[in-house]
Amino acid sequence: MDNQNFFLLLAFSLVPALVLGTRNHVYIVRVDNDLKPSVFPTFKLWYTSTVRSLSVPSTTALDPKPNPNPNRRGINSKRLLHVYGTVFHGFSASLTAPQAHALRTTPGVLSVIQDRPRQLHTTRTPQFLGLVSGPASQPNNLISSANAGAGVVVAVLDTGIDPGHRSFSVAGQPNPPSKWKGICQAGPSFPATSCNNKLVGARFFATGYQAGVTPKNGSSDILSPYDTNGHGTHTASTIAGGPIDGASFLGFATGVATGIAPQAHIAVYKICWSGGCFESDMLAAFDSAVADGADIISLSVGGGPTPYHLDSISIGAFSAFNFHGVLVSASSGNDGPGEMTATNIAPWITTVGASTIDRCFSADVTLRDGTVLSGASLYSGKDLSPDKWLPLVYAGNLSSLRLGFRSTAPFCMRGSLEPAATQGKVVLCERGVVPRVEKGLAVKEAGGVGMIISNEFLDGEGILPDAHLLPAVEIGYSAGKIVHEYIRTEASPSVRLSFHGTQIEVKPAPVVASFSGRGPSTQSAYIIKPDIVAPGVGILAAWTNSTSPTELSLDERRTEFNIMSGTSMACPHVSGIAALLKAAHPDWSPASIRSAIMTTAYVNDNLGRDLIDESSGNRSIEWAHGSGHADPEKAADPGLVYDLSTEDYTNFLCNSNYTELDIRTITRTAVNCSQKSGMPWDLNYPSISIMVNQPVATSAGNFEIVVNRTLTSVRDTHSTYTVSMKEPSGVHMVIVPDKLVFNRKGEKQQFVVKVSAHAAPLKAGASQTEFGYISWTDGVRRVRSPVGFTWHQSF
Ligand SMILES: *[C@@H]1O[C@H](CO)[C@@H](O)[C@H](O)[C@H]1NC(C)=O
Ligand SMILES: *[C@@H]1O[C@H](CO)[C@@H](O)[C@H](O)[C@H]1NC(C)=O
Ligand SMILES: *[C@@H]1O[C@H](CO)[C@@H](O)[C@H](O)[C@H]1NC(C)=O
Ligand SMILES: *[C@@H]1O[C@H](CO)[C@@H](O)[C@H](O)[C@H]1NC(C)=O
Ligand SMILES: *[C@@H]1O[C@H](CO)[C@@H](O)[C@H](O)[C@H]1NC(C)=O
Ligand SMILES: *[C@@H]1O[C@H](CO)[C@@H](O)[C@H](O)[C@H]1NC(C)=O
Ligand SMILES: *[C@@H]1O[C@H](CO)[C@@H](O)[C@H](O)[C@H]1NC(C)=O
């Protein structure tokens, strides 16, 4: 019966129509697979039918070959070039422009993009964040109301900066604010003239490093703020690089490269060296940055899970945030997707996780049996090889046994692959253990001609594109399984690799990146971390002249820009947004700026669905995305904020049972906790996390909890806010009052969330968390806070 319907549908769709334009191009078609009619047993059949249903050009004379089957007047099925089923749902096909146009309105089709390796479009993250750089006459535009961040100084604690890069040229850049006291610390490759109105300060901190580590001979360390690594140049330009037309990386992601706050000032504090970033140096950098008068500190450097009072980032950030009004934005680390992997989790740090944008650099693996698996690559050369199948081998079968490389060969560690067996082949490597670009080098050195990197289970479908030295495609876990199975079962497995350049308007986006560090926080279950997610996959930004884009010494390429992925790339986006908000609202505290970013964040992707987690393909949860994805234009007008004082944090630390001595390490002033009697969730944070401990004897019973919050109006008008909510599953919430009236800017109103829940049946030591939210609105603005409720069963 299904077959019959299918047949009817095909027949119905073969009505020819007059169309103009017969020149074919390759188009990449994104499809919403959820809309597949059940009559089609496979996606491929559905796609094929969709393409065949497109009308045929009226002038087929241009087609040199006669149509072999006059009854099949639809498009030759051969024109369905690829079927994508992992990161990308859809297909590519050779179509005329009118056919592509017709496809755009076909049900189930999300986007139709012409496959052009070097197409013109912008570098995209400002647009993806909704930042429009329009004329100043548009009052509701954050870039113009913030004057693009002019007058705000962002301290970048990183690997230094390449001051000669065009992104840091001074054209049109106003003077730094008069309070600015920074210096330009000269040194090798960094003359005192390196600083200007864009790069207003530069220092380096190597004392701790030099004391702790003897740099390796031949290390690239230069004792000056000069960036020999590239990371610091990349993050600084993401925050505040000036606009550069025609930027690209080897032809990928062509467009205008610009920082999020292109008129903000940068002050560089070099804390990272070839042997690492040392806490003592970091703390010194925090000190200097605050003393110099920085407004924002951006830190794409992580620490391990350390109690707040033993973590110099946390300590440095506390003073910056509380005593000096400096917002500290830091990356949540790249150790996801496991739980409790987030770093930089102190409640006074804005913790930033990473998500994708609507751009990808797609590449395909075609197995000889016809299977096409889509992946990603920044390899800039030709396809491998369009007219010949190449032998495919699994790296685990190539180990130089005599050298004992059995365990490292699957990961393609350099020297682990036997050249005699690798020569002339495409090698399947596992992701992990060694840097991805180094795997390519290992394969190349052993004589391999191409490489496929397959995700491991925990990486899920999250794919990170790299500028490999040989033709290489990275594929997700499920595609990897298919390749493994193909190699195992085929007598002579063979393959082709093809590269498709840059695609934009990719859906769904954003998607939470697999690698992004996740909560719950190792230091406090009462604070949801990360706070926010922002673009951190495939980000184009400035690069240093002193190293290659892969950072491999054997790679002789030098590029003005580079495409990188990591929470290191996400953090500077939020630092840039904070700079814009600070410029637009100089009177806002760092807690207010963070609150504005968090309460206006969104939790839906560009298909209107809940954010997806790349690692599972399932709905993302708050331990992964926090309050959601940053939305700077909304954050500029949050209506209400959850502000915080130093005393609030002191109470939080007391209520979390930190000792007075430990608290003093953080706050630097004596505290007396004996009169504090609240709970840690009373901290006036823009999100809420409650945890209850169930004594082992009572898996029955009820929990009744009252959570206090105070909202502050940031608008000078009368406004009435009403509340809505979604209760975490199994939890009852009542919000009192359910209406708040504000008459002026700065006015505060308190409310309580009365939470009740039954005990949950859990094994000893186990926990369970459910999430909901509360949301205040005046009809225009929305002030949303996720609410987490965790049951924990004692041993
Ligand atoms: C980068 O290096 C090249 C040659 O090594 C040089 O010509 C160019 O000026 C350098 N660019 C910058 C921005 O320093
Ligand atoms: C490093 O280089 C110095 C001088 O070139 C040499 O004396 C020293 O032995 C080298 N150290 C190592 C560990 O190779
Ligand atoms: C290749 O490796 C797999 C997994 O380790 C093994 O099952 C298979 O037998 C090996 N194939 C050859 C030809 O050695
Ligand atoms: C994703 O969701 C499916 C269906 O609900 C479930 O079976 C699977 O375990 C989930 N995967 C992960 C990694 O949570
Ligand atoms: C702090 O210690 C007190 C007394 O032992 C205990 O009742 C309370 O639950 C603890 N608070 C936290 C957040 O662990
Ligand atoms: C803290 O305050 C309590 C009550 O006011 C007082 O008894 C106690 O001595 C104080 N502790 C310290 C260390 O000052
Ligand atoms: C919470 O708010 C209620 C009512 O506004 C107040 O009575 C109570 O003291 C507050 N609790 C804390 C710990 O601030």
From TrEMBL:
Assigned keywords, A-Z: Glycoprotein, Hydrolase, Protease, Secreted, Serine protease, Signal
Keyword Glycoprotein attributed: yes
Keyword field contains Secreted: yes
Subcellular location: Secreted
UniProt domain Inhibitor I9: residue ranges: 26-121
This protein's GO CC annotations: extracellular region
Family the entry assigns: Belongs to the peptidase S8 family.
Name of the protein in question: Subtilisin-like protease
Naturally occurring in which organism (per UniProt): Carex littledalei
